Amino acid sequence: MKLSICTISFRHHLHSIDQLAHFAKTQGFQGIELWGVHAKNLADELHYGADWLSSYGLETSMLSDYLPLEAPISEMMAETEKLSSLAKRWGTNKIRTFVGKQGSLDTSKKERKELISRLRMLCDYLESKGQDLLVETHPNTLTDNLPSTMQLLEETNHSSLQVNFDVLHIWESGINPIVAMKQLRPYISHFHFKNIASRAQLGVFSPNNVYAASGSREGMVPLFEGAIDYDEFLAGVLSLKEVDASLEWFGSNVKSVLAKDVQEVKKALQLVQV
Length: 274
Known about the structure:
About 40% of the residues lie in helices and about 15% in strands. It is built from eleven helices and ten strands. Strands 1-2-3-4-5-6-7-10 form an eight-stranded parallel beta barrel, surrounded by four helices. Strand 4, helix 5 and strand 5 (about 130-135) form a beta-alpha-beta unit. The chain is globular. It starts with a strand and ends with a helix.
């Protein structure tokens, strides 16, 4: 399993990309998941990219952004081309996005059909660049539950469409993440690992709260101290040949929590491999 830090975890911190790369290396991570806005803000700093990151023994596991699927096609494609170019520069073939801005039950057949059409356009373009589009399992999108996610994959029917499997959000939808993983297995290209103290506190991860510097962090807990059993989940993940995962931490004490969690994940994997 290759583990990455997410630069989004440091969205409210004054750390340079150099400091984050040094931290990731010294703590035993293999990669960095680069937030799209961070990649864009580094675009004019030509020194930074895949070669620079490899000097730390790291790779870019994924470029995570929010492609504007509802925007005019010209705007959507311009943004996709920009991200594709940045992904190439950083040496990753994975671009993450969300699908839609409302839940699957609140999306009409017409709206769903249009979103699927847009996904095909993006996948066609990215395929021509040797890249994949990863849709993240997330509330208030078309991938807010397993049936809708499977339907989306079947409707789009494109080899460049993959899944970023967010364990917590799958669990939030009411299904056992291991059951969901087995069904989505052919499409999974990346995992997000995070945890919560209790189901009643899941609202802490709503975008309006989690992206706000003054937002609540109540209920966010280290990976092995929450309601989701990651020992059990990691045992199931080992059935996959290759696993790329990011430790996505939105709470305080970022470095200490990530440093602890990466070691705990490695210990858990060693135990299930014995």
